[in-house]
Inverse folding.
């Protein structure tokens, strides 16, 4: 585990329409026990200052803006993200190897280099959805293809469903990060996610990091919901450390 210590395993997706409920949840969290993700909703509403505030509180922040553009534009956007002090940034693997390599090379030239990962196939998409946009085969086949492209481009890992983790792992080695949204406790609703697993099954299947949003943020008691998930995976994390 040279890229990072895989603990804490949970990345809380802060998908809120305003800062107040997010900061309320964050005020009860310990940077040693979970990481945070800021995505398109909060970044668009609140901007870089919100990200810097979370970084300033000592959290590892995954800036999930999924850049997908020409290589020069994506490389510059990744450098701008690095300037915010974030721990991890991402791009879409379907932007191609030239785009991914440009982003990696640009980050490598900086003194603070966040981890760089690529989204393979969104966890909200099933086989029919990907056929509609011209991808043939099962989601897993496409995840594997894009995981190989991402690894060959020198990135640190991918975003995929935990369902694909076991198949991808032997192809990319132990250091390559498998970051998995599409995580649902057994009692939770699936929402718009199609390729899901429970937190413990996700880790057992080879996921490194679990991105979890609504099962925590939409709960009546978000902190209690996070605590329950931490308890569910505690045995696995203890066995790994
Ligand atoms: O394939 C992907 C890539 C990113 N996401 C993001 O993860 C969270 C998941 O939130 P839930 O509420 O747990 O469904 C969300 O911010 C997505 O933008 C993803 O779900 N799938």
């Amino acid at each position: 585990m040279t890229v990072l210590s895989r603990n804490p395993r949970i990345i809380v997706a802060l998908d809120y329409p305003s800062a107040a409920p997010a900061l309320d949840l964050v005020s009860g969290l310990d940077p040693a026990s979970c990481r945070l993700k800021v995505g398109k909703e909060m970044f668009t509403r609140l901007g870089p200052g919100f990200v810097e505030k979370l970084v300033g509180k000592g959290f590892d922040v995954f800036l999930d803006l999924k850049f997908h553009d020409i290589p020069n534009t994506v490389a510059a956007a990744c450098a701008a993200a690095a300037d915010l002090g974030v721990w991890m940034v991402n791009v879409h693997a379907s932007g191609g190897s030239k785009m991914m390599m440009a982003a990696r090379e640009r980050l490598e030239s900086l003194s603070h280099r966040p981890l760089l990962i690529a989204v393979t196939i969104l966890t909200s998409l099933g086989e029919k959805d990907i056929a509609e946009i011209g991808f043939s085969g099962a989601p897993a086949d496409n995840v594997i293809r894009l995981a190989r492209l991402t690894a060959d481009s020198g990135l640190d890992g991918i975003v995929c469903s935990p369902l694909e983790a076991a198949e991808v792992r032997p192809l990319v080695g132990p250091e390559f990060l498998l970051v998995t949204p599409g995580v649902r406790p057994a009692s939770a609703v699936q929402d718009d996610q199609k390729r899901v697993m429970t937190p413990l099954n996700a880790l057992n299947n080879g996921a490194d990091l679990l991105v979890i949003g609504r099962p925590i943020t939409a709960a009546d008691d978000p902190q209690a919901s996070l605590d329950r998930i931490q308890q569910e995976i505690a045995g696995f994390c203890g066995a790994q450390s």
The chain has one domain: 10-235. The longest strand covers residues 61-67. Residues 10-235 form a domain with the TIM Barrel fold (CATH 3.20.20.70). Strands lie at 10-13, 35-38, 61-67, 88-92, 115-119, 157-159, 177-180, 209-212.
